[in-house]
Recover the amino acids of this structure.
């Protein structure tokens, strides 16, 4: 069966700038897909092409088997939730939500029931008569969601849906958004520059850079097995070491990265080949005595920052290497290590990600 | 010294407000009171050409209050109705014509490249930097039977005889448009520049065609500009009599001209003042109401903007 949304070799240029470069992507029905990338990577342009606000220079976009080339924005089974929400300031909450239904010439009685239903869905019952300026940021976000869902779009596009909310509200809203998506089984495409937002929301993430999709994978795969240095760095914190493969035995690679490191052999590496090593901070364990893991590096603490659940450390090892590590603040453990203290950083060969570049 | 403030620091804000306020009282409010007072006096020969309304005579304080001027106006109301009607019709049509021309122009300027916008706005305001009388004479030069346009059309063979453009409604409204267009464009531009593009995209995304986007989003959100611009054109246009006098026929008697005649030809200041006061009342009531409505929407917009600044922090981490 054909995928629900098929983006095929799509290119879009603005003058000399290639915003979206020969991009292909398939998205399944009822998926919550996330386009992740820094600002200017072309993700918003791709979103606007799906919505019909931008034309496609070359390539094609198909939604539910229909080529969208000649379908204007107003006629697409697609709705968009804008980053700044774009609520109509001169209309009440109910009229904002009903806007799309009125354009579809739905009967007023039906509109009323539908608006009620949507207000219940986004937990804003009784707010019908409020104006956007009388709502909090979180309430406005939910009105925007309800308005975008009113026409029962086959595809909902969300442009930085949580960016305008403060941190606390954002965490609650993330789960709410996922709940609503699962309940409605509508296909959602979220565009964001916030990797945490992408990871918590999406079932699959497409990382974009310079108009191209760099990697498409589940959040866990992207985080644990990033395809290149850019993605490893973009998604969360990471320590990089550069080295050369010096040996291979029992499914492990020996690497000289100023310090000897053992890494699980993912295949495709040969002795003498230069590699980048990426290690996530929570995979590195700090202790005052040698740990049990295969890699043990003598270190001293350079920096420490207490964040609540955990503490973030920067440690220096032999030959000037630097590692970032995060240690949970647990009870019953040894007292946490402090500045200037000496100890060992240990990590499992399975937690060393090898990158070709 | 810490904690000590000078008299100037404490009263600075008041002084800043007080100076223009005093100016307004002296040069606007007091003359208005003077006109209102004069409308209740009796005319006489001399300077000033009316009896004092009140004062101190041989028998002490006296007042000389009467409503005869208003009675006179009411008695001969038909003589004033014509010019008043002419003026209001002129102002109304001028406002509508200006709006029709200004709306797309303001839209185009507001949507154009930010670097070009400043230049376009200067071009809009440029005519204001020359005398309006000069511009009217320039227009006469264009529209005359032997003026530029007729000469060109005759030369090109488009017409056989000169078109009669002067002393018509066409020439009057050309003059009004020429003079008042910037006053309509600027407030429209001010509201349009604040219109969020995403609102238009959102409307289109929700199934609105071009007409529906205009009717349901653009028009209501630019209404404050339409109202402000219309008032800026309508109010001075009611009192306008130079343009119709120069460009129109002799039958175009405007209320402004009547006022002028009463003041300077008849030297009947009391009746002229009464007429001015009546006009003010007739025009001010609906306009104050309209401004009140406008003020409410503006206050609403401000609240909205503030709310956005306070709770939404774009890009807040």
């Amino acid at each position: 069966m054909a995928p629900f949304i098929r983006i095929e070799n799509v290119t879009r240029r603005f003058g000399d700038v290639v915003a979206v470069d020969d991009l292909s992507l398939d998205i399944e029905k009822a998926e919550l897909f996330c386009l992740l990338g820094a600002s200017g990577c072309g993700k918003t342009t791709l979103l606007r092409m799906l919505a019909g606000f931008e034309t496609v220079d070359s390539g094609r976009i198909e939604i539910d088997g229909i080529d969208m080339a000649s379908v204007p924005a107003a006629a697409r089974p697609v709705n968009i939730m804008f980053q700044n929400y774009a609520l109509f300031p001169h209309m009440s909450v109910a009229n904002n939500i009903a806007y799309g239904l009125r354009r579809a010439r739905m009967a007023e009685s039906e509109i009323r029931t539908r608006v009620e239903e949507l207000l219940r869905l986004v937990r804003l019952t009784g707010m019908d008569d409020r104006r956007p300026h009388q709502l909090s940021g979180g309430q406005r976000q939910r009105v925007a969601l309800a308005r975008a869902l009113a026409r029962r779009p086959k595809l909902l596009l969300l442009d930085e849906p949580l960016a305008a909310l403060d941190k606390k509200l954002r965490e609650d809203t993330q789960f709410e958004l996922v709940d609503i998506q699962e309940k409605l089984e509508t296909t959602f495409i979220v565009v964001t520059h916030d990797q945490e937002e992408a990871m918590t929301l999406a079932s699959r993430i497409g990382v974009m850079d310079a108009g191209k999709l760099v990697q498409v994978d589940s959040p866990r795969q992207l985080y644990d097995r990033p395809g290149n240095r850019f993605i490893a760095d973009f998604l969360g914190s990471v320590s990089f070491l550069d080295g050369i493969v010096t040996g291979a035995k029992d499914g492990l690679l020996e690497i000289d990265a100023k310090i000897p490191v053992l890494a699980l052999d993912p295949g495709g590496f040969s002795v003498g080949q230069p590699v980048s090593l990426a290690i996530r901070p929570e995979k590195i364990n700090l202790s005052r005595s040698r740990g049990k893991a295969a890699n043990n590096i003598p270190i001293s603490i350079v920096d420490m920052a207490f964040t609540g659940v955990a503490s973030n450390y920067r440690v220096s090892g032999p030959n000037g290497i630097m590692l970032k590590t995060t240690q949970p603040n647990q009870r019953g453990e040894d007292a946490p290590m402090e500045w200037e203290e000496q100890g060992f950083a240990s990590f499992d060969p399975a937690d060393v990600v090898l990158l070709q570049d | 010294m810490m904690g000590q403030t000078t008299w100037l620091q404490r009263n600075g804000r008041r002084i800043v407000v007080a100076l223009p306020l005093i100016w307004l009282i002296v040069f606007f409010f007091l003359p208005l009171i003077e006109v209102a007072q004069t409308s209740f006096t009796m005319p006489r020969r001399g300077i000033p050409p009316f009896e004092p309304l009140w004062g101190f005579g041989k028998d002490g304080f006296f007042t000389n209050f009467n409503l005869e001027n208003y009675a006179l106006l009411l008695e001969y109301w038909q003589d004033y109705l014509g010019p008043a009607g002419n003026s209001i019709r002129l102002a109304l049509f001028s406002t509508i014509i200006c709006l029709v021309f200004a709306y797309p122009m303001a839209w185009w300027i507001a949507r154009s490249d930010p670097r070009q916008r400043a230049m376009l706005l200067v071009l809009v305001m440029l005519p204001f930097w020359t005398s309006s009388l000069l511009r009217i004479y320039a227009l006469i030069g264009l529209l005359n039977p032997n003026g530029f346009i007729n000469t060109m059309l005759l030369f090109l063979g488009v017409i056989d005889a000169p078109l009669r453009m002067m002393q018509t409604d066409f020439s009057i409204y050309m003059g009004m448009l020429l003079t008042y267009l910037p006053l309509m464009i600027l407030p429209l531009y001010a509201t349009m520049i604040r219109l969020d593009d995403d609102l238009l995209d959102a409307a289109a995304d929700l199934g609105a065609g071009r007409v529906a986007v205009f009717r349901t989003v653009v028009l209501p959100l630019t209404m404050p500009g339409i109202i402000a611009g219309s008032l800026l054109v309508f109010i001075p246009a009611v009192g306008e009599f130079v343009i119709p006098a120069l460009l129109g026929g002799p039958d175009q008697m405007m209320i402004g001209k009547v006022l002028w005649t009463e003041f300077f030809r008849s030297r009947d200041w009391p009746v002229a003042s009464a007429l001015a006061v009546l006009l003010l009342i007739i025009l001010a009531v609906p306009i104050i109401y309209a401004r009140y409505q406008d003020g409410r929407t503006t206050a609403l917009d401000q609240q909205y903007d503030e709310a956005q600044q306070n709770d939404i922090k774009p890009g807040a981490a």
About this structure: The CA atoms of residues 91 and 236 of chain B lie 8 Å apart.
